[in-house]
Design brief:
Elements lengths: L15 H4 L2 E8 L6 E10 L8 E10 L4 E8 L6 E8 L9 E3 L5 E8 L4 E7 L4 E7 L6 E11 L8 E11 L5 H4 L3 E2 L4 E13 L2 E14 L1
C-alpha cells in the first residue's frame, strides 16, 4: 500500500508538482509553542464508497520538517475500502503497514503512539475485532500537526460526511492547553465541519485533548 498524501500538506506550494491533481479538505491542529504531539487516536466511521477511485480519507501527523506524513489511510481505489497505516513517502523510506478491508457503516479505531524506539499504529475493525499493529522508525521526527484529511484525485466529495469520534490527542513540552481549546485550521475554508465535546486536561507538561466528535460534513 502506498499513499502520496505526505507530499501535499505544509507548505502546500512546496510540493505543487505533486499536489496539482488532488483536491484537499482538511482540519489541522498545531500544539502550543515548544510542544510536540506524542499520540493521536480515535474512531473513524466508514462512509459509503460510490465507485472505485482515488479516495484517501485519513487522520495523520506531520513533522516540523514537513518531510512526510504519518497516517492511517482509508483507500477506495479498488472499489472496496481498505485501511492501513504508514509513513509517506521518503526521508526515511519505510515499508507500508498491514491493513484490512472495511465497509460502509463500520467503525475502525486507530491509535498512533510514540514509544521508546518507534511510533506504533494499531487499527481495529470493531465489527469483527480484526486488529493490525505496525511500528515505524520515526522517533527522530517532531510532530507538530494533527490532521483530519480528505484527499481526492479524479473524484469528488460524493461519499457524505466523514466522522471521527472518541478522539484523543496528546502533546508534551509544556502545560499550555490553548491549542486544544481553539478551533483547528480549516484549510482554505473548504469544509463545512462540526466539533463537539472538547476537553483539555493537563498533567505536568503533558496536555491531553479529548474530542467527542469531529465531522467533516461537506464541501463549503
Amino acid at each position: 500500500m502506498f499513499s502520496p498524501a505526505a507530499f501535499l500538506l505544509v507548505p502546500l506550494l512546496a510540493f505543487a508538482g505533486q499536489a496539482s491533481a488532488a483536491t484537499w479538505y482538511f482540519l489541522r491542529y498545531y500544539p502550543a509553542s515548544g510542544q510536540k504531539f506524542t499520540s493521536f487516536s480515535g474512531v473513524m466511521s466508514i462512509p459509503k464508497l460510490p465507485q472505485a477511485g482515488t479516495y484517501y480519507l485519513w487522520p495523520g501527523l506531520q513533522p516540523t520538517d514537513n518531510s512526510g506524513v504519518y497516517q492511517n489511510v482509508l483507500d477506495g481505489r479498488s472499489g472496496t475500502w481498505w485501511i492501513g497505516s504508514g509513513w509517506c513517502c521518503s526521508n526515511p523510506s519505510l515499508p507500508w503497514g498491514s491493513g484490512f478491508n472495511t465497509y460502509q457503516g463500520e467503525k475502525v479505531a486507530f491509535s498512533n503512539t510514540l514509544g521508546g524506539s518507534a511510533w506504533t499504529s494499531t487499527l481495529t475493525r470493531q465489527a469483527t475485532g480484526d486488529t493490525v499493529t505496525n511500528s515505524f522508525a520515526l522517533t527522530d521526527k517532531s510532530f507538530n500537526q494533527a490532521l483530519f484529511a480528505i484527499e481526492l484525485t479524479g473524484v469528488s466529495w460524493d461519499f457524505g460526511p466523514l466522522e471521527f469520534t472518541d478522539v484523543v490527542i496528546t502533546s508534551t513540552g509544556s502545560s499550555d492547553s490553548s491549542w486544544c481549546d481553539s478551533s483547528p485550521e480549516n484549510y482554505n475554508s473548504a469544509s463545512v465541519y462540526s466539533i463537539t465535546g472538547v476537553k483539555a486536561s493537563v498533567s505536568g507538561t503533558t496536555v491531553t485533548c479529548t474530542i467527542d466528535s469531529v465531522i467533516l460534513e461537506s464541501p463549503a
